[in-house]
Amino acid sequence: MWAKDLLAGDCCSDTDAAMIICGVWSLWSGRNARRHGRDRWDPNAVVRHVAAMLEDMMCLETTSMLAPPRQRIMWKKPPLGWMKVNTDAAFVSATGDGAGGAVVRNSQGEIMMAAARFYKHLPDVLTGEALAARDGVMLAQELGVEQLILELDNSTLVALLRSEDGGRCAIAGLWQEIRERSRVFRSFEISFVNREGNEVAHLCASKASESFPLLS
């Protein structure tokens, strides 16, 4: 009646009872296997089997720690007196077609102007991103912006525009043009934002097509 006593929980804890029952079951299974034709009974194999079952049981009992939900990255307003232009590009490598989108917002988060442009014969996505950034800077110039933050979600382009080595890269012409145009502003900065914080510019880029090459 020892099995009944174990299951009743009067003589030991539930965990200890489970460990004992697992061990006894393995011993009983090994004995029966030998009786029904197995040549030899390996006690080491039984020990390993019991250990594996106990490990599985302990894992089931352990409460899994749920990872906290990842905080959604939101677009941030520029400082008072500044405006921010976010740009993004879409690119289809099979055709070389692409599009750029730009949106200018003030320190209250209000959209001052947005535009999209279709591009053909792009060699790569970096060129599309650089074209979109240039068009975004031009858009801010048209508005007469004095203090501008150019915000992109392409870290490679951000690094190039911040460095002095862009003149030797594949987009050297666009790199130089963006830098020249940035000197028009009284203050100019370049910042990086994750894709989640650049959704409006991405949406603008998705609206341009060969049938509608320029939208504003």
Characterize the structure shown.
- With 216 residues, this protein is an alpha/beta fold.
- It has two domains: 2-61; 83-215, Nucleotidyltransferase, domain 5, CATH 3.30.420.10.
- The protein contains seven helices and six strands; from the N terminus they run H-H-H-E-E-E-H-E-H-H-E-H-E.
- Strands 5-4-1-2-3-6 form a six-stranded mixed β-sheet, sandwiched between helices.
- The model has no long low-confidence stretch (mean pLDDT 84).
Tally the helices: 7
CATH class of the largest domain: Alpha Beta
CATH superfamily (homologous) name of the largest domain: Ribonuclease H-like superfamily/Ribonuclease H
Structural class based on helices, strands and sheet pairing: alpha/beta
The overall strand count is 6
Short characterization:
It is built from seven helices and six strands; from the N terminus they run αααβββαβααβαβ.
